[in-house]
Amino acid sequence: MQVNPHPALRAQWHAIMVVVCALACTSVCAAERLVLATEEYPPYNMSDTRGHVVGLSTDIVKALLDAAGYEYDITVYPWARAIGMARTQVNTCVYSMSRTPERESLYKWIGPLVSNDWALFALAKSSRPASLDETANMRIGSYQGDAIVSYLQTRGHIVDAAPNDDVNPKKLLAGRIDYWATGRLIGQYRLAQQGISGIEPVLVFNRTEMYLACQKQLPDEQVKLLNSTLAGLQKSGAIRKIYATHGYTP
Q1: Cα gap 62→242, rounded to integer Å
Q2: H-helix or E-strand containing 120?
């Protein structure tokens, strides 16, 4: 015999199911769209002539999120603002972020996406230091928010941090700094972009891996999904193919 529940009981169960579905949707829907912040850091992430965000890291991040079924928006900001957004705004991530001890507890980490050699650039006629210790008391240029700044400062180096990295080649040419510390690839890219010669990398002093760093409220299961998806792309050879389209190897 079929028993029809009392109308009041049906209404109560309906209300409960609405709440359950709403909670489930909150979790699922939060995973459907991410806000991605990045900076002008070629060849890893940069704007093209049409205003689209491109680059090696960008292509890897897009492939990762597409494979994991996410929707996303990518916008270029000044670096200090980008990392601040990913620290404070829910469902927001930033790339390409070096994973340092100072930053470790501030974000959820997906990656690594790419590696980055940190190098000192100098005038071609300058002497080449054999180690970072030989540059003590020399003025080293970098830019605000970059992990290189804290790396050098904690080792006692004098760092002139500019608002952005674009100005450092000209500061080096003008003698306002003795060395320019930046990623080896990005340094060479900026020199070519600005048509500057007579500056070259003279010392690679550190290698870091760069990640997609997300606001800490991103659920752990989503972090695991993204990391496992990235591992699958690496295993399948998809990441190597992305590197190849940019003229590099992993």
Answers
A1: 11
A2: strand 108-123
Give the class (CATH, top level) of 116-208: alpha beta
> Matching CATH topology for 10-115+210-245 and 116-208?
yes
The domain 10-115+210-245 having CATH identifier 3.40.190.10: the answer here is yes
Alpha helices of 105-174 — where are they, by DSSP H?
147-153, 168-173
Strand residues in 128-246 grouped as ranges (E) = 139-143, 158-162, 179-183, 199-214
Please count the other Cβ atoms lying within 10 Å of the Cβ belonging to residue 52.
10
Strand order in the sheet with 199-214: 71-76, 33-38, 92-98, 199-214, 108-123, 179-183, 139-143, 158-162
In order along its 250 residues, the chain shows pLDDT tens digits of 444 555 554 545 444 443 434 344 334 444 569 999 999 999 999 999 999 999 999 999 999 999 999 999 999 999 999 999 999 999 999 999 999 899 999 999 999 999 999 999 999 999 899 999 999 999 999 999 999 999 999 999 999 999 999 999 999 999 999 999 999 999 998 998 899 999 999 999 999 999 999 999 999 999 999 999 999 999 999 999 999 998 887 7
Q: Which residue has the tokens 């991040």?
A: 61
Cis status of the peptide bond prior to 163, with omega within 30 of 0: no
CA dihedral 204, 206, 209, 215 (to 10 degrees): -130
- Token digits for 161? 């941090």
Domain ranges, ordered by start, for the chain:
10-115+210-245, 116-208
